[in-house]
């Protein structure tokens, strides 16, 4: 930054009004509040739901270690639940992107070719979503 740009920046900062500064302070506070709110809203749960073609076929605690064999649209899928996390251990799809996602404690693993979804965490599956209201 050369001296002209530095001078211009200082001049612009001096020209801000009280309303500008209050708006900036409000936006910073709202951003910090939003971070804490979303952390609470997306807090880690303890349930895993497995869906095939949009229908729940299995539900269990993340803290019950097991392997689950699911029949997807292109073949079998093996889901492993262990130590509060879940992963797609084996899938009969061509690209295996679902397997490369690894272990999760919350969120979703999708195997689109096989129509299998693994949803981890409480409250991740709701009757209504942001679009339906």
| Average pLDDT taken over every residue | 83
Distance between the termini: 49 Å
In angstroms, what is the radius of gyration? Answer: 23 Å
- Measured by DSSP, the beta-strand proportion falls in 25-35%
Number of domains: 2
CATH topology heading of the largest domain? mini-chromosome maintenance (MCM) complex, domain 2
Low-confidence stretches: none
Description:
With 133 residues, this protein is an alpha+beta fold. The protein has 2 domains: 3-41; 47-120, N-utilization substance G protein NusG, insert domain (mini-chromosome maintenance (MCM) complex, domain 2). It contains 3 helices and 7 strands. It has helices spanning 3-14, 18-41, 97-100, and strands at residues 47-52, 55-61, 66-71, 76-82, 85-91, 107-111, 116-120. It has a 4-stranded antiparallel sheet with strand order 2-1-7-6. Strands 3-4-5 form a 3-stranded antiparallel sheet. The mean pLDDT is 83.
